[in-house]
Design a protein that fits this description.
Blueprint (H helix, E strand, L loop, with lengths): L3 E7 L3 E7 L5 E8 L11 E2 L1 H18 L7 E8 L4 E5 L9 E2 L7 H8 L8 H4 L8 H11 L3 H7 L2 E5 H9 L9 E3 H4 L5 E2 L4 E2 L1 H7 L8 E3 L8 E2 L11 E7 H8 L8 E5 L3 E8 L10 E6 L7 E8 L3 H9 L9 H6 L9 E3 L17 E3 L7 H27 L6 E4 L6 H11 L3 E4 L4 H13 L6 H7 L2 E5 L5 H16 L7
Parallel strand pairs: 1-5, 5-14, 9-12, 15-21, 21-22
Antiparallel strand pairs: 1-2, 2-3, 4-7, 6-8, 10-11, 13-14, 15-16, 16-18, 17-18, 19-20, 22-23
Length: 503
């Protein structure tokens, strides 16, 4: 009998396979990084074949580590870096171009051109999103417009599009030999092509962007008892296991944090930072620069929506200090270096490397460090880099409070940076609310495993999942209100310095 539910967690910098028991505890994990490709300033790509090879390796690795057999797995879910766009040949399984990553800004001209008729919010009423380089639709258009022969092949029906969830599911379930070409509502909602009301691709927008409908995947529930497909017996899993859960990484974390009630929110600290607030079965339009997006859809139940604040660069800033400036050897070293100083020394670091996401949506912004004096040392820079994550989160939370009319009383957090105690305390201080870390902080993979396990009856209900959630640590605000507002005011001033840098 199956003892576990598992998930492929395909992220921006690495891929992992995680296996969970019925209590939501981690049984086994394997993880590998993949290359970040920067062909020119503002362009970011991934090699999708490398990602698939890493996926195969981590599945085998996690299963071998604890002698897990295919028969021990009830189901497999997928969670993924969203918006990263891939187009491939359905007959050969070969990508026509590298995957264009969500941080990539090459589609700025396409977005500007689309905005000439109706402005940045031209499609927002239908799709919940502003016109921005972040989303998949303009990236598909860029590939069809710029890669020789692709438009003709797409119109002929030979090419498939997918965010990375679609690619991994297609490869897991057979690839060119009958692989399932599907996505779920959450990933579809990041393309700028999904009508939030009909939960179907929007023909009018497809026509405007000149994207052939036949290259798009079938849209399915995030947890689907009808299954997307099964893994191949001779594939990395080593048996025919149901693949039936699929959630974009931030929605997976919302689900893994068991934020099932309207008004519940979580913040995930990864390459970027993403706060999601469950708004129930109601589509809540944002007037404060947030995204209206899908939360999840479980089987035949009504779809659940969310408000999202997306921040492009948080953990990626720590990586940049490590790799580009060689400020330290391991990402975790940043905390000790930041602790060598009492405060930020008067500097602010605004990491608008890919422009600014929520709540500004300015693709022409670029990163700045402001307030520099001879007094500043690497401790101050390390501290300012960590504080940047907390300040950006504060801006998103303020927007969320404004849009939803609900004052958040505590913030559930997850992701790699939540083990940075200095950051978590400063986050609580600058928000003025408690910050709560759960026992399993890798809730992205857990959410996808939950969705898959629910589909096959490994868990019976969301109530079962709620019982698994437990607090690991809580940080309470210690900062005086006056100090909090003074620091925040300085941050807002620094953000303004990033505007309109690219002409």
């Amino acid at each position: 009998m199956a003892k576990y539910s598992a998930a492929v967690d395909q992220g921006t910098t690495s891929t992992r396979f995680m296996v969970f028991d019925h209590n939501g505890a981690v049984v086994s994990i394997d993880q590998m990084e993949h290359e970040q490709i920067y062909p020119q300033a503002g362009w970011v790509e991934h090699d999708a074949l490398e990602i698939w090879a890493r996926t195969e390796d981590v599945i085998k690795g996690a299963m071998q580590k604890n002698n897990i057999a295919a028969a021990d797995l009830a189901a497999i879910g997928i969670t993924n870096q969203r918006e990263t766009t891939l187009v491939w040949d359905k007959n050969t399984g070969k990508p026509v171009f590298n995957a264009i990553v969500w941080q990539d800004t090459r589609t700025k001209d396409i977005c500007d051109e689309l905005a000439e008729d109706g402005g940045q919010d031209r499609f927002r009423a239908k799709v919940g999103l502003p016109l921005a380089t972040y989303f998949s639709g303009p990236k598909i258009k860029w590939i069809l417009d710029n890669v020789s022969g692709t438009r003709k092949a797409a119109e002929k029906g030979d090419l498939l599009f997918g965010n990375i969830d679609t690619w991994v599911i297609w490869m897991l379930t057979g690839g060119p030999n009958g692989g399932a070409h599907v996505t779920d509502v959450t990933n579809a909602s990041r393309t700028m092509l999904l009508n939030l009301q009909t939960l179907d691709w929007d023909d009018e927008i497809l026509k405007i962007m000149d994207i052939p409908r036949q290259m798009l995947p079938e849209i399915r529930p995030s947890s689907d008892p009808k299954l997307y497909g099964t893994t191949l017996v001779d594939g990395p899993v080593g048996g025919a296991i149901p693949v039936c859960g699929d959630l974009g990484d931030q929605q997976a974390a919302l689900y893994g944090q068991t934020c099932f009630s309207p008004g519940e929110a979580k913040n995930t600290y990864g390459t970027g930072c993403f706060m999601l607030l469950n708004t129930g079965t109601k589509i809540v339009p944002s007037k404060s620069g947030l995204l209206t997006t899908m939360g999840y859809k479980i089987g035949d139940k009504p779809a659940v929506y969310a408000l999202e604040g997306s921040i492009a660069i948080t953990g990626a800033l720590v990586q940049w200090l490590r790799d580009n400036l060689k400020l330290f050897e391991k990402s975790s070293d940043i905390e000790e270096i930041a602790k060598t100083v009492e405060d930020n020394g008067g500097i602010y670091f605004v990491p608008a490397f890919s422009g600014l996401f929520a709540p500004y949506w300015k693709s022409d912004a670029r990163g700045v460090i402001v307030g520099m004096t001879r007094y500043v040392n690497r401790g101050h820079i390390a501290r300012a880099a960590l504080e940047a994550t907390a300040y950006q989160t504060r801006e998103v939370l303020d927007a969320m409070n404004k849009d939803s009319g609900v004052e958040l009383t505590a913030l559930k957090v997850d992701g790699g940076m939540v083990y940075n105690e200095l950051l978590m305390q400063f986050q609580s201080d600058i928000l003025g609310v408690p910050v709560v870390r759960p026992k399993v902080a890798e809730t992205t993979a857990l959410g996808a495993a939950y969705a898959a396990g629910l589909a096959v009856g490994f868990w019976n209900s969301e109530e079962d999942l709620r019982k698994n959630w437990a607090v690991d640590k809580e940080w309470k605000p210690k900062m005086k209100e006056a100090d909090r507002e003074k620091l925040h005011k300085g941050w807002l001033k620094a953000v303004e310095r990033t505007f309109d840098w690219v002409e």
